[in-house]
Structure formats: structure tokens, C-alpha cells
């Protein structure tokens, strides 16, 4: 500290030097405070996102303001309904009786088993014989799970009495040669395992309750054999898929049991499907024990089309080899949504409004012809995208380096060319959501090596 006496003894040059030193110290402290504020905001945002992922619902629900508006609308509707009820009460009794709901008939193609209910005696108490004048029929829906049946394949032997030539029909082709399961039973095991998430040990118990316990080791052998038999179909589907110029790709972490270690390790299920506007609706899943980009390169090989994906570095080598990168607007939007949910950021709110307008246009052009879709994108979506880019560029100059909003803006600005390529090509979608939803499609699994194939978007290992 410098007291008043010391200041009085200083000349002008010394005072200027002291002032410069103090200003430099103020600037340094101010910069440090800004850095700390940005860091605090970043940590607060990250903590809020983690808490929301851990405790809150995963779906995007209404905010407090929207919920308040909804409550007001509900109150108004209740009053209107009460008023209508009072008016209806004054009408005639016939008009006030509502129509009874009609039950839809059960499908005619379902097999029917008739259960007859007749009196124990058809003789009247007076001694006369009763005469049947009609019947009432009601249908109930029943279900019998896990019913085993046995197919007996009888191959007759025919011999010629003169030349003793023996003739017999050939053995019909089976998925597993000399095995006991039919194609229907194998399909049940596979669908239950990969579609219904039923591990083989649970299926073993289910079959046991049906009267025949099939060991899980046997079920695992069946699954492996089916994988080998289905591999040509996987290869054919992959070949057809790679003929399309627009593709989606996504990788999902799954838990894989590590034999010998007694614990799980992280593996990945890579999902590939043609573009959302392509004519082939199919999915191929490629299991890998890591997230290395070499797995995507091995799968796509010489394909040089347009790939919709997120900003994962594993895809970068593909772009260097000639694959065109298509960005995912949903990932860009997610950055701002998380920020707005955590801190009610006005910048994030404005960004969501811009992106919402782009999605509104996409909903309108979803079912249109390609040329119509392209015209509307050029006329209506492009001006919005250009305004969004200019606005993001302006906001980026104003926000602190390293802050959460800076990272959200950088994600979109850095990938802007890839994010907006869809505006110039009607076959290109705005995001990668088609691939995320592809888990619900009918796809073909690759060969389940050691039964380690995982179901898409699911958690937990299916090694049984």
C-alpha cells in the first residue's frame, strides 16, 4: 500500500508509472474474474446436465411457463364442459342417452374352438321334450404361451419289384442339419433373445414350464449356428445398402461379458442404414469390441457416398478418403437444449427458436416429391439458416472463451457446412434421427460370434 505522503513525494513520471502498474493489475484481476465466472457457469451447466440425466425424465417436457398456460387452458375447458353439460341436461331424455361403444369383432382369421354350453337335461319339468329355438354366441380371446408340438416327417420307401430300385423323397432342407429344432422354434429363440431382450437362461425356464427344458448351452449352439446360416443374407443386404449414395451411421455402447474376467467391458454396436429418403428401408448392425474408427472404415470400405453422423472423430478418416460429411442438426440442437434447461440461457433459447423453424419446414416437406422438397428448402429454410449462422457468429464474439455457450456455438459453427448440406440435396435429411430410430426396424444381425451380438439401443450383455 502507498500512503498519501509517498504520493506527494512522487513526480509526474513516477505517478504515471504507478497508475500504469495499478491499471495492469486491475486488468489482470478482471481477466481472472471473467475466467472464474466462465468456469463456474461451465461447471454449473455440466452439473445440471448430469443431474438431469441421473434423476430427471429423459424426454423433453413442458417448461413451467408452458405448464401454466396448459393449466389455464384446462380450467377454461372445464368451465366450457360444465356449461355444455347443463345445456344437454335440458334436452330430451332420448337425446341425453349416449350411444354405447361398439366392440370391434375379433379377427376372422384366428382359429376358433367352440365350447358348447347346453342344459344337463332337455326334458321340461312337466315331462315334455324341449325344442331348440336358437342360440346366443359370445367370443372370448384366449392365448396359450409356450405350446410345444412335434413334426413327424415320414419318408416312405418305394421299391421296384422287378429291378429292386429303391426310391425315397429327399430329406427337406433344415437350418441345422440333423438338429431337432424347426425354423419356427429357432425364430422364436432369436426373436426372444434379440427382439424381446430375453437371455437364454430365461428362455430355458420358459420352455421348462411348457414341458421341455432345453439347456441354455443347446440354445446358445442354436443361436451360433443360425448366425452362420444368416450371414449370406447379411452380406447381400449390406451389398444392397452400399449401393445407395446417402447413408446413416451411429455407434452405441453396450456391455459385453468378458469370458474369464467375470465382469463386463464396454463394446459397441455400429448401426448402418440407407438415408431417410432412400427407397431401401433396412438396417445392418456391426458388433465391435471398441469404438475405433477402423471398424467404420472396414464396414464401408470403398463406398464414397454421403454419410450422416455426429462429430465423432472415428469418422474423420472416412472424410479424408472421399466420403462427404453430413451433419446432424439434432446434435447441434441438443447442445443448446441442455444449456437452456440448466441455466435458462437466452442465447440458447434464441438458437432453439431458429432451429425449431428449420424443423417445422422439414415436417412439411417430409412426404413431398424430391423436387418440391428442394424448392421449399431453398425458398424458406435457407434464409433461416443464413440468419442463424450470422446470429451465431455475432454471439460467439460476445461470449467468454471456454464457457458452455461458447462450446455450443463452436459445435455448430465448426460444422456449419456439413449441417447445411441438406439444403442443396433433397435426398439428404436434416439429422441422424433416422438411424437412431432404426433400432425399431426389421434388420439383419451379423454373425453372433460367441453369442456376443448385442441388441441396438439396449443395455446389458446377452451372453448366455
Automatic annotation (TrEMBL):
Pfam families: DDE_Tnp_IS66, LZ_Tnp_IS66, zf-IS66. Residues 122-164 form the Transposase IS66 zinc-finger binding domain. InterPro entries: Transposase-related (IPR052344), Transposase_IS66_central (IPR004291), Transposase_TnpC_homeodom (IPR024463), Znf_dom_IS66 (IPR024474). Residues 178-433 form the Transposase IS66 central domain. Residues 42-115 form the Transposase TnpC homeodomain domain. This is IS66 family transposase ISBcen19.
